[in-house]
Specification:
The complex is a heterodimer.
Chain A (H helix, E strand, L loop, with lengths): L1 E6 L8 H14 L3 E7 L20 H12 L2 E5 H6 L11 E4 L2 H9 L2 E5 L2
Parallel strand pairs in A: 1-2, 1-5, 2-3, 3-4
Helix pairs in contact in A: 1-2
Chain B lengths: L13 E6 L8 H14 L3 E6 L24 H4 L8 E4 H6 L12 E3 L1 H9 L3 E4 L1
Parallel strand pairs in B: 1-2, 1-5, 2-3, 3-4
Classes of the chains: A alpha/beta, B alpha/beta.
Chain lengths: 119, 129
């Protein structure tokens, strides 16, 4: 199955960003296709490569980057939501790119299921 | 993304944006409107549902100067220009808040919760903000 994912909640405050990652990883392990993850609202903060969680905590940003590299997943950050929060090209973690809401709609059009994490 | 099979263009999908929150206090009502407008430019079958405090997004007479944010409610009147004219409002949510169709900025279809649920079940993509 082709799966699109929308992540609306910010990392570390809400579990939704982690749940989206765990869901994506589990779906890929089962042989499903995850072509794109779209980050919206506070979810865009997951793209910030300057984030530094404590040593004993998971790193939300770097594990998205790793998963994207391993499975060629398109990590798209909503441009308006990103710029409001200072998320710009120069601080994007590997695998993320900034684009418009059209990428979310396209994901909904092409995927068999669009799964939403967050509010 | 993997390209669709050449020569085979998929038909429009049914996208429903569900508004559940008051128009101000969070950004979600404004963002739902943004998503609707973009979805419409992709020629998809777009509809909007309003329930719970989301029905206030369509209330007439909104004034936002006191909270120093933009009053985006007039944008709902422009939806028709984008061929977005499927607006569904849950009857129970209106009644609980002392509102009716005449309290709203634009013409809508008022449905009870069961009808709205059936409509949601028919959608390809449901985004609830």
């Amino acid at each position: 199955m082709k799966i699109g994912i929308l992540v609306s909640a910010g990392p570390y405050t809400h579990q939704a960003n982690d749940s989206a990652y765990l869901f994506a990883r589990a779906a890929l392990a089962k042989g499903h296709i995850v072509e794109r993850v779209f980050f919206y609202h506070d979810g865009v903060n997951a793209a910030n490569r300057l984030t530094e969680p404590p040593q004993d905590d998971r790193n939300v940003t770097s594990r998205w980057s790793t998963l994207a590299a391993e499975h060629k997943i398109d990590l798209v950050v909503c441009v308006a939501a990103a710029l409001r929060r200072g998320i710009k090209d120069e601080i994007l973690a590997p695998g993320f790119r900034i684009s418009g809401l059209g990428q979310l709609i396209e994901s909904g059009m092409k995927a068999d299921r669009l799964v939403v994490f967050g509010d | 993304m993997v390209d669709a099979t050449p020569g085979k263009k998929p038909g429009p999908k049914k996208f429903m944006l569900v508004n559940r929150r008051a128009p101000h206090g969070t950004i979600y009502a404004l963002e739902a409107l943004e998503v609707v407008l973009i979805a419409a430019t992709f020629d998809q079958d777009v509809s909007l549902a309003f329930l719970d405090d989301g029905v206030y997004a369509l209330a007439k007479g909104q004034k936002t100067t006191g909270i120093e944010v933009k009053n985006f409610s007039p944008t709902f009147r422009a939806l028709d220009d984008y061929d977005v004219n499927k607006l569904y409002v849950e009857r129970e949510s209106l009644q609980k808040r002392g509102l009716d169709a005449d309290s709203l900025l634009v013409p809508v279809q008022v449905l009870d919760a069961k009808q709205l649920g059936e409509l949601m079940a028919q959608q390809d993509v449901v985004l609830s903000f």
